[in-house]
TrEMBL record:
PROSITE patterns: CYTC, CYTCII. Belongs to the multicopper oxidase family. Cu cation binds at residues 126, 131, 166-167, 175, 180, 321. PANTHER family: ALCOHOL DEHYDROGENASE CYTOCHROME C SUBUNIT (PTHR35008:SF8), BLL4482 PROTEIN-RELATED (PTHR35008). Binds 1 Cu(+) ion. It catalyses: nitric oxide + Fe(III)-[cytochrome c] + H2O = Fe(II)-[cytochrome c] + nitrite + 2 H(+). Its EC number is 1.7.2.1. The keyword Secreted does not apply. Its cofactor is Cu(+); Cu(2+). This is Copper-containing nitrite reductase. It comes from Lysobacter defluvii IMMIB APB-9 = DSM 18482.
């Protein structure tokens, strides 16, 4: 007979648990929390408290309370244009003006009075469904709010855990795809173990009419959303929200806790931090934890908490381990850890440029500037080269290296390449159509495959080609966007895709 210890929790036991240490720190399990039946600690006590909410990636301080209170949460719905990638704008619909919306932190047993305002300049009505609410619609039916209106409803947070909230106004998939989600943490009565740093990150999938990184203001593409064919998969609503100057930070010797949600609307996340192992994962945002985890699955409309101790300095890369989402759709973030090297645990050589490409750079200003200058029709050679360099890193440097030297026997050099010197006009064609078959560069024969990169815009191809021509002793010259467009229409003999 299979005996599941602690599965049958009496109300008495469940009540006893309130205020007592919950999860067994040795095993990550407990005798059962009693769920919602054990989550009502009576009427709110003391003066009402105005919740401290925080914009991503910050997390409000612990409630620090040992009694249930009335907590007032105020949230604004704001529709606004923000960058989704450098040089790419998108009309986001948001809670509190950020994607994800503000992080809410309450304690199990708290009575939450929720105020939702929809800004007068909004075009749409919105509402909120908090997965931490017990009651039909999670608040949605009580919070339908037209532009210029405010609504209010109250709920008791009966279940501890980390929960997604989102807009649930029809078409729901569209409201969520436009960025309407965030996290609410309902602390267990005893609180969570103290850590040195806490951050919050929410993944989301985005669907734009233009291609990935196609410049300008992009519209929502409902067909792509229905097909679940995301153009971007992002942490915190913008490519670069957690890289460069925006990277998360920590120090060797510290313990970090991440609160990670997945707003969706569609894709499930295989959340992983390259170079770290989660010491603990409170999978699905629930009460029990698993230990020593590489990758944790975060469902759309779900969440997880994870903790890890930092031993070695360097760049740790947050990814959705469905990897083309990370490297070709934007699902990348960085945790930058400072401190003493620890060669006994890890010796050596950082690889974040290869992993991150252009996103390892502090900023992509040159690209954004080039994009705006290009639309104004006045791009200088210097701007083209600067923008091309930023794009080269990550697009081409993965194989040809940032130095342009290539890798002996595998990837031919672009630096001082006699092939480029003899065929400078082929550069945009090689970029757009790839290359295969034997090619001799500086006396060495290569016979491999370079993949085509038609996802690059004509501007991007022109800038990368111009950068390559004007760097590492190559012959100079300039490629225009019109030449890139012509190259796109050609069918070169060396192309690596069948035309
Ligand atoms: Cu909405």
């Amino acid at each position: 007979m299979l005996v599941l210890a602690g599965c049958n929790v009496t109300e008495q036991e469940a009540g006893d648990r309130a205020g007592a240490a919950g999860t067994d720190s040795e095993t990550g399990t407990n005798g059962g929390t009693g769920g919602s039946r054990a989550g009502d600690f009576g009427p709110p006590q003391g003066e009402p408290i105005h919740a401290v909410t925080t914009a991503p990636p910050l997390v409000p301080p612990p409630t620090g309370r040992d009694y249930p209170a009335k907590v007032i949460v105020e949230m604004d719905v704001v529709e606004k244009v923000m960058p989704i990638s450098e040089g790419v704008d998108y009309t986001f619909w948001t809670f509190d003006g950020t994607v994800p919306g503000s992080f809410i932190r309450v304690r199990q047993g708290d009575t939450v009075e929720f105020h939702l305002r929809n800004m007068p300049d909004s075009k749409m009505p919105h509402n909120i469904d908090l997965h931490g609410v017990t009651g039909p619609g999670g608040g949605a039916s009580s919070s339908f709010t037209a532009p210029g209106h405010r609504t209010q409803f109250t709920f008791k947070a009966l279940n501890a855990g980390l929960y997604i909230y989102h807009c649930a106004t029809a078409p729901v998939g569209m409201h969520v795809a436009n960025g309407m989600y965030g996290l609410i943490l309902v602390e267990p009565p005893e609180g969570l173990p103290e850590v040195d740093r806490e951050y919050h990150v929410v993944q989301g999938d985005f669907y734009t009419t233009g291609r990935y990184r196609e410049k300008g203001l992009q519209n929502f593409d409902f067909e792509k959303a229905i097909d679940e064919n995301a153009t971007y998969v992002l942490f915190n609503g913008m490519e670069g929200a957690l890289t460069g100057d925006n990277a998360l930070t920590g120090n060797v010797g510290e313990t970090v806790r991440l609160y990670v949600g997945n707003g969706g609307p569609n894709l499930v996340s295989s959340f992983h931090v390259i170079g770290e192992i989660f010491d603990k994962v409170w999978y699905e945002g629930g009460t029990n934890f698993q230990e020593n985890v590489q990758t944790t699955l975060i469902p759309a409309g779900g969440a997880a908490m994870m903790e890890f101790h930092l031993e070695v300095p360097g760049s740790y890369v947050l990814v959705d381990h469905s990897l083309t989402r990370a490297f070709n759709k934007g699902a990348l973030g960085i945790l930058q850890v400072s401190g003493e090297e620890n060669p006994e645990i890890y010796s050596g050589l950082e690889v974040d440029e290869v992993y991150l490409g252009d996103r390892a750079q502090a900023n992509m200003d040159a690209v954004a500037q080039a994009a705006s200058s290009a639309s104004a029709g006045d791009l200088t050679l210097e701007q083209q080269v600067a923008a091309g360099e930023a794009l080269f890193l990550g697009t081409c440097s993965t194989c040809h290296q940032a130095s342009g030297e290539g890798l002996a026997g595998v990837f031919p050099p672009l630096a001082g390449s006699d092939y480029i010197a003899e065929h400078p006009e082929q550069l945009p064609q090689i970029i757009l159509h790839g290359m295969q078959g034997p090619v001799t560069v500086n006396g060495v024969e290569y016979n491999s495959i370079m993949p085509p990169m038609p996802q690059l815009t004509d501007d991007e191809v022109a800038n990368i080609a111009t950068y390559v021509l004007n760097t590492w002793g190559n012959p100079g010259g300039r490629v225009s966007k019109e030449q890139a467009a012509e190259a796109r229409a050609t069918n070169p003999a060396f192309a690596s895709e069948g035309h």
